[in-house]
Amino acid sequence: MQDKIICLPKRVQPSQNQSSVSNVSQAVASTTPLPPPKPSPSNPVTVEMKGLKTDLDLQQYSFINQMCYERALHWYAKYFPYLVLIHTLVFMLCSNFWFKFPGSSSKIEHFISILGKCFDSPWTTRALSEVSGEDSEEKDNRKNNMSRSNTTQSGPEGSLVNSQSLKSIPEKFVVDKSTAGALDKKEGEQAKALFEKVKKFRLHVEEGDILYAMYVRQTVLKVIKFLIIIAYNSALVSKVQFTVDCNVDIQDMTGYKNFSCNHTMAHLFSKLSFCYLCFVSIYGLTCLYTLYWLFYRSLKEYSFEYVRQETGIDDIPDVKNDFAFMLHMIDQYDPLYSKRFAVFLSEVSENKLKQLNLNNEWTPDKLRQKLQTNAHNRLELPLIMLSGLPDTVFEITELQSLKLEIIKNVMIPATIAQLDNLQELSLHQCSVKIHSAALSFLKENLKVLSVKFDDMRELPPWMYGLRNLEELYLVGSLSHDISRNVTLESLRDLKSLKILSIKSNVSKIPQAVVDVSSHLQKMCIHNDGTKLVMLNNLKKMTNLTELELVHCDLERIPHAVFSLLSLQELDLKENNLKSIEEIVSFQHLRKLTVLKLWHNSITYIPEHIKKLTSLERLSFSHNKIEVLPSHLFLCNKIRYLDLSYNDIRFIPPEIGVLQSLQYFSITCNKVESLPDELYFCKKLKTLKIGKNSLSVLSPKIGNLLFLSYLDVKGNHFEILPPELGDCRALKRAGLVVEDALFETLPSDVREQMKTE
């Protein structure tokens, strides 16, 4: 629409005063050379308005219109449409700037995207459906608690923290249980990705409050703008007039000075200004309410208390800063969005989803494919580096041993009671929680427990109550104070414990171990090189039959060992033994049958060893022995003798006395010849003579009819005796020899060995 003003000369009425006469005279003069009009006696005197005649009528009145528009018309009447446009643009800019500014728009767009996906996710429906299926009594109790908490809240702040619109959620939200339970693998993966997105988004958005600050500032600006508009428009709306008087000094051209102008848009502008004030007032009141909403309570904190009470998901965290502000904003639209979004803030909900995905991935059939037999001859299921423990594990009822390795937040449910055959449990670097019913089951059925840990807090406190536990294996670093005072203090309650193994860095045998000494039969301490001192507590373990002290930096055989009259096996591997003169005291241990002194620094074997007549297995491998005493072979019950990795040059002929010998190893020594008496040990099954300086293998080796394993590799043999064919139990797989040397055997012997 075009804004116009139309001006006409203004007629001036004559008056009696001098000023009026003067004006008439000027008007008469301006109309010359025309004669003045003759007054009529019956009419009052009037002046006819006639200007100068020119050929520029159109141009001169266009000029007059423009001059009067600029000079006589009030600025408000002239610029009213532009003011409305400018104010509207300012309001639009204030309202939409945060949607365009990169620092805020990216957060809003990301939030809306995640919110929509969370709202539509099948996992949300399933998680809430589990809540809707709770026991009615539990839900009634929760509602009573809610009502009590609502009545105790006083003041407007309490009612705003738990938004009243949230109370309509149960009425709006209806779960179709027939579809809530179905969640396929793809949907599970999508929900898992949503959890990660929400977690990262929360971490990023909760750091700042740019959205809140920007929204407050733009609202304050709009309120100030509203007040300014109302103030000046109310004052100036009366200035919009339909008729305007205008004086333009243009008599020389037109013959007139006074003009009366008509503002063609004045009537419309006047009505529009009142409408504009009404609309701005409504908008301004909305801004005032928004400002009241912003400052009436803190919008930088958002509590999910009502959602926690309503859904029973107790670990939904409260949020702050921009994250809280956006949730308050979405509540103004529909609080159901916040409720469904809250599901993805809960770790409990996330763990349930992980569990569901885990169950979908590890079906019972897939788990059965991983079953294997372990060292204890039990059917074992090893699970390594999973996100949790699949519930499908408890459907494999034939399972005897469960091994969990590097699995965080393991929860053993009551359904473990379905595993009637379960006897062994291994926890390697796992943090484990257990249901009370599951603990009761383990107390009655678990026989073997193995725990490997990096941090002592990974030691399950419930393991001390396993009253039927027979074997306990602990692997991990223990500080001295903790190992003495805390970690093993409660072992006295393990009344059935028979085997205890500790692989750690203990410097003393814990007192708690002594507390179970009355029924302990085997104890193993594998240190990391830490010196083990004060072994007097060993004397109290009168029923101990097996003892292993490995890598404990022992320089002598502990005297306390000689008091263990029931001891049958002793292993002192990887210590710092150099002299074993105390070995004579072993003669009092009538039941000792196995002695392992391997991986030490022993230089000789004392003659007193002959008094250990009950020995059946003896290992001196990886020492520095140079000479074998003939008295060694007076221990005529020896069936296993390992002398490998020493500096032995000569084997005494008395070895033939060992008629029970089945295993003999002198690998990696400096032996140049073997005595013929060795072949009198006709029960020999394993003979290891590799990596020596032997040049001839006696034909008498054919006397060893039970020989099934022979290692001769790494010597100076040029030919193998054909009598090896008499060793019917010896096959090619059991003969360790160079291929070229094997070819020196007769073809029939080679064929015999190759046949299975």
What would you say about this model in short?
By secondary structure, the chain is an alpha/beta fold. It is 37% helix and 12% strand.
Description:
This protein is 37% helix and 12% strand. It has 756 residues and is of the alpha/beta class. The chain has a 17-stranded mixed sheet, with no helix packed on it. It has a three-stranded antiparallel sheet with strand order 1-3-2, with helices on one face. The protein starts with a strand and ends with a helix. Residues 144-162 have a biased composition (Polar residues). InterPro entries: Leu-rich_rpt, Leu-rich_rpt_typical-subtyp, LRR_dom_sf, LRR_domain-containing, LRRC8_Pannexin-like.
* Weakly predicted, low-confidence segments: 15-42, 132-182, 481-487
Number of helices: 23
Which structural class do the helices and strands define? Answer: alpha/beta
Nearest-integer average pLDDT: 81
Biggest pleated-sheet summary: 17 strands, mixed
Instruction: Report the principal-axis shape.
Output: elongated
Per DSSP, what share of the residues sits in E-state strands of 2 or more residues? 5-15%
Distance between the termini: 110 Å
Rg (CA only) = 52 Å
Helical content, roughly?
25-40%
Task: Let me know the number of strands.
Answer: 24
Protein name: Volume-regulated anion channel subunit LRRC8C
Main location: membrane
Pfam families: LRR_8, Pannexin_like
Membrane topology: Multi-pass membrane protein
